[in-house]
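For homework, think about our next protein:
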Amino acid sequence: MIEVAGLVSGYGRIQVLDGVTLSVGAGECVGILGHNGMGKSTLLKAIAGLLPTWSGTITLEGARIERRPPQARAAAGLGYVPQGRQIFPGLSVRENLHFGAVAKQRDRADAVAEAVAEFPELARLLDRPGGALSGGEQQLLALARALAGAPRLLLLDEPTEGIQPSIVQALEQRIGELRRRRGLSVLLVEQNLDFIRVLADRVLLIHRGRIVREIPHDAIGDPSLDQEFIGAEGSALSTHR
């Protein structure tokens, strides 16, 4: 599905990623754990094309995409849900979904109908401004907007951040269902260990811009693992359901 090799990127003259190498197979969910500031969000932004690739390669289904602009990567099958949702607060839910359909030039009405079928909670909100939604509703909208582009690989950055437990569980179920029904691949940055344990097939640890270890699935949440690899950030990476 996607292979990232030796990826170096950052902001301005500040390098954050230092040769990241990873892969996500078709239908697979790979989780990313690590300290704050170690490059998790930067990695997703670089894959999505929001940050430049200084060196290294990104190959999606056999095609090199690291020099393509974000819209071309979206058209090639990447969907991105950023940290903090970043919906358009002044536009309606319907209009937000229209933007998601642009990359694949899908019919807007079809994209909205599909989103409502996947997320019935959005049906009564279609004409409401995105900024008037609750945090959980905004997260559902952000996910639905990304799916409106019919992606094959979904990049999820901290989807449970600031979300109440009932919505976290709903997201967990929806993403799991989407993987099964659509064969969707997922690269998931997440601090909620329960969430990542349920969804991820493999978990990678990022440290100072490099993938340094693959964590066995059954070791996620082990206190000794938290102490050894998460250290002072352990409280941030603890479960919060």
Confidence is low (pLDDT under 50) at residues 231-241.
